[in-house]
Amino acid sequence: DWIVIQQRIDGSLSFNKNWITYKLGFGNYNKNYWMGLEKIYQLTNWQNFRLRFEVLINGVWTSDEYDHFKIGSEMEKYRLTVSGYSGDKCNVLNSTVPEYRHNGMYFSTPDQDNDLLANWSCASMTSSGNWFNACQYQRVNSVYGSNLDYAYTRATYIRMMIKPNP
């Protein structure tokens, strides 16, 4: 069974949170939700997991999966590692354009800027936490209704889920 680690269904909960809140998690599992970086780290370092994005764009559901997903510890700033893409939208975490690539990035929040841009804070600019490189390609935790997007397309509903590989 899939385990939801992130979900956006409406704008009733802001994802403009600080590092400690993203670390511990917030929201309601059945509504707008972030599991928590520490829980995700503990799960993905205990066993080999896969990651799935489900996204509703213009009334059409799309999905993308990665065969292998894990994040580093807090000391490693919860660095994202994914591989083995398959799906029907795009390889949103491993873009062929280097500045759009999220894989290998550290997690950033408005109060802890770990992206690769010298003069900008992607987390502050998008009012959210994420594995930012150069503020591009997927902003699944950004402000709902304005810059909540996936592969440059505004999304209505976004869910990230994980499950153990057999």
UniProtKB/TrEMBL annotation:
Q: Which Pfam families match?
A: Fibrinogen_C
Gene3D superfamilies attached to this UniProt entry: Gamma Fibrinogen, chain A, domain 1
Read off the PROSITE patterns from this record.
Answer: FIBRINOGEN_C_2 (PS51406)
| Residue intervals of the Fibrinogen C-terminal domain | 1-166
This entry carries the following GO cellular component terms, namely: extracellular space
InterPro entries, A to Z? Fibrinogen-like_C, Fibrinogen_a/b/g_C_1, Fibrinogen_a/b/g_C_dom, Fibrinogen_C-term_domain
Superkingdom of origin organism: Eukaryota
Q: Which PANTHER family match?
A: APPLE DOMAIN-CONTAINING PROTEIN, FIBRINOGEN/TENASCIN/ANGIOPOEITIN
Name of the protein in its database record: Fibrinogen C-terminal domain-containing protein
In which organism is this protein found?
Answer: Helobdella robusta (Californian leech)
- Gene encoding this chain? 20216815
